[in-house]
Amino acid sequence: MIFTLETTIGKFRDVPYSGFPRFNTPEALLDALRDAGVDFLSLANNHILDRFFEGLVTTVDRVEAWGFDFCGANRTPAEQVRLVVVTVNGIRVGMLCYTEFTNDMDDYASPEAEAYGVNYMRRADYAADVQRLKDAGAEVVFAMLHWGEEYWRRPEENTVVQAKKLVAAGVDVILGGHPHMVQPVEFVEAQAADGTLRRGLVAYSLGNFISNMCLQYTDSGIMLDFTLRERPEGGFAVEDVRAVPVYCWRREDMIQALCSMRYLNAPPEGMSAFEWARLKESYRELRELIDEGIPMTGG
């Protein structure tokens, strides 16, 4: 499984751990992610500099020490140009991670953050990055993007433009985040530099998986499931795309991610009638938004 880690990890000097607006989290979160089966983390997001460049370095140190594959944040110039190719069921998948912004924290962090610490979209050469991955043996390319306007259920125009640029550059699957609300999932076509027509799967925003937000649409998300199938003529097709609907159940002592589809007929133990009604409503909202050729599944 692949996730976006939208927080810094590890104690920063003598500053207490904190939530919004500047996130800093104990290493126990990495234990939980590893135990849940997460393999890969994107560190390119608007909160990666919440403890400045020093916090970014500590976060990368911890993520690496816990054994995760990752990209999007870099401790050195050499790490910024390193190639991340992971093998999944024998398929070599190249990974790209970019963020559109860091909440202006680059204005306060040391110069290393802007120079090489964060993979910013504004500095990316998508085509060159994809080509380097393919030269390194990548058969499929995924891109994880932190982009767009918060609290929008549809992608803004620039997000759609960037998605087409990524597909034209050779990206096969785009997984987006940051709006905190689920946005549509669709196949996008774009013309590559050589004139060929390329097709890529784009999830503009996967919404929230674990979140303390309570606004309508922010208490849900989706996990995307799909199959990479080798074509007889070469390359891989993205097929059997399905969405697992997730509901963020805010409890007194925890926030629990539930597959809402599993609880449409009966609530989980301990859930109030009001909360159960909201779980079912969030499922209907997700169906209306994305169930246009992308079916829901119970996981």
Distance between the ends: 13 Å
- CATH level 1 name: Alpha Beta
Uncertain parts: none
Backbone shape: globular
Give me the count of strands. 14
Biggest beta-sheet profile: 6 strands, mixed
Please give a quick description of this structure:
This protein is an alpha/beta fold. The chain has helices at 28-35, 52-65, 77-80, 111-117, 126-135, 157-169, 273-290; strands at residues 2-4, 8-9, 24-25, 40-42, 69-71, 85-88, 91-99, 140-146, 173-177, 185-191, 197-203, 220-230, 236-250, 255-259. It is globular, with a radius of gyration of 19 Å.
Structure description:
With about 300 residues, the protein is of the alpha/beta class. It has a single domain (about 1-215), classed as Purple Acid Phosphatase, chain A, domain 2, CATH 3.60.21. It is built from seven helices and 14 strands. The chain has helices at about 30-35, 50-65, 75-80, 110-115, 125-135, 155-170, 275-290, and strands at about 1-5, 10, 25, 40, 70, 85-90, 90-100, 140-145, 175, 185-190, 195-205, 220-230, 235-250, 255-260. A six-stranded mixed beta sheet has the order 6-7-8-9-11-10, covered by helices on one side. Helix 5 runs parallel beside helix 6. The radius of gyration is 19 Å and the shape is globular. The protein starts with a strand and ends in a 9-residue tail after the last helix. The mean pLDDT is about 95.
Features:
three-stranded parallel beta sheet, Purple Acid Phosphatase, chain A, domain 2, globular, six-stranded mixed beta sheet, 25% helix, 7 helices, alpha/beta
